[in-house]
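Chain X:
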Amino acid sequence: MLPLEGVKILDLTRLIPGPFASMILADFGAEVIKIEAPGVGDYAREFEPMLKRQSALFYMFNRNKKSVTLNLKDPQDKTTFLNMVKDADIIMEGFRPGVMERLGLGYEKIKEINPKIVWLSLTGFGEDSPYSRMPGHDINFTGAGGILSLTTAKGRPAILGTQLADLGSALWAVIAMLLALKKREKTSTGERIEVSMLDTVINWNHVAVAELLATGSPPKGEETMLTGKYPCYHIYETRDGYITVAGLEEKFWIDICKAIGREDLIPHQYSTEEWVKAELEKEFRKKETRYWERLALENNLCMMPVKNIKEVLEDEHTKTRGLIWEVEIPEEGKIPTLAPPVRFSEIKPQLKSPPPELGEHNEEFKK
């Protein structure tokens, strides 16, 4: 038995943050019912890149769920939704503040029907923020939250290669919902939760805040210990790619310098003179990335290659750790999807069903 079996979630969210959060809970047994607009559904169904029938992005975040189409402005569909609320445990919504209230389906209304409901609002900025009515996407939040000022290339902010605000807020949403369910066990009362994506990004700035505290100045990209200021924590070009070096501790730095045959650089671990990095890069350019990866493995060095996602999926680590599930989708065939990256001694998350067709489960709930 999975730990969340018996937990029923009505998920009105779209795109990445909410669906990622509800998928995590579904993997561990929760019954997740996607409430989607008729004809349109989750916008992610139509986002690039497309496979034969739907978006590959949609398939990544919606396994183990059911889909019911409801027009929440329609009286009959609204009644159906309120009936579903009666035995639900969690409602997730990702609209801008006030939308659910205007539909007559706000938290206070729902609480009258189901006092034990756990309500999650996943917003961009939060209800009482001066930006609360603004729309936003990941790049807006990572920019406004300080992350992009530290993620720079040649002095310019660079777009992150993953969706930190989306995925990070999903994790906080999962933590919050589980905490609310635990509280409900003790008190028999529900909870209203708000997770802001900008708040989440700001919360990921612990190291930057420490830097500000210590120096009195806001840190800049490529100018701090963990953004490439020193030769011991940097990315170097190889003959055919890039290698990451992270010799922050003296013993690890010594091991790296000895392994690559540059013991002369040991005294320059925290040098700010550019010639040190230039010498290291000259050394790394002599061999292919695979050579340096093998050297790191054989000598237990803090060095790892920069890999593209195809290389990651084919890596022995990924396979050994069981990080990929294959899901069979009608007309698409088997596609890879990322499994939960956590292991328990007894609990085994499950791949029970592929992402649902739009409205696939209408008959089960529209009675």
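Chain Y:
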Amino acid sequence: MAKKIILGLALTLILIMPTTTMFAHADSSPTPPPSGTNYNIVGAGSSFVFPLMDKWRVEYNAFYPNVKLNYASVGSGAGINQFTKKTVDFGATDAPLFPNEMKAAPGALTFPESIGAITIAYNLYGVKTGLKLTGPTIADIFEGKIIYWDNPAITSNNPGVYLPHARITVVHRSDGSGTTFAFTQYLSTVSVQWKKDIGFGKTVPWRAGIGAPNNAGVAHYVQLTPYSIGYVELAYAMQNKMTYAAVQNADGDNFVLPTLDTTYNAAKQAGSLPASNGDWHNVSIVNEPGPNSYPIASFTYIVVYSDLSKLKSMTPDKAGVLVHLIWWMIHDGQQYTNNLWYVKLPDNVVQNDMNGLAMFKFKGHQLFNYTGGA
């Protein structure tokens, strides 16, 4: 009888061990996805990061064919809404969660996973990339105060460039957008009047122009519309061979084009970052100082619940896969950033994310026991 009891206890321990410790390792990387079972990870949000996220989808599946990442590029606002409603495994946003959003999603963790630039793209026949624009001029254009391309505020900084007496068509986002958040945050920084009249957020009360959904929609509309101007993430501008402005830097002594180097120069000026479970709503890398810092730069973020058992579709194994996927994005996945016009995460940001990964649990059981280091 005693032997049967001991055998029963041993079998019970074997059955519960995978659930409680399978993915908890005091190491620099989580356990890779187990083979033999198919896993479907669902995310939604930022169109800013979509070109990179789509690349990650393909490359991660090449390494782990039983894991499929389904990502919907619906805009940051819609992504956070789905995240809050727990209909996706993670949300993606270019705007950090605000206190009211954190309250609606208790236990959320924030992970910067890439860095990009927002270009001021335009469609002007005969005008190449590099039209020089100051921050206040951009604000006045998007508020509808500067109506024609030959306005002195534009021509004075562009001697020798022919600018027609043609009406400017402003194109802005029609959806809740982290790109809009970063762009309008920049305009609120460089223009007191914009801050007073419009302010910043994922949606704002536009006073001029026409709306289009997502970065792709704005890029498409600008390409089709002569004399138009809009704001789009650098990857979209490059992939669509758009022309875009050189924007005056924060110091006021140079006009800077958006490139990998000038975006990195802005990102490296960022101060200490909050913990993944902290308050990120004041984090910003717009209008950072430096002669070659591009002034309209932004982190993009993944937001995930720290206790993954909150999600109905989640299992312990799938939770471990999600943790590994995020780890892979901030490590191996960074090799794909530059070719898509995103900036690799600096080491301090990766370290911050690693500490955040150690906060994941499933019904109280830690999923990744990170002890520091790589």
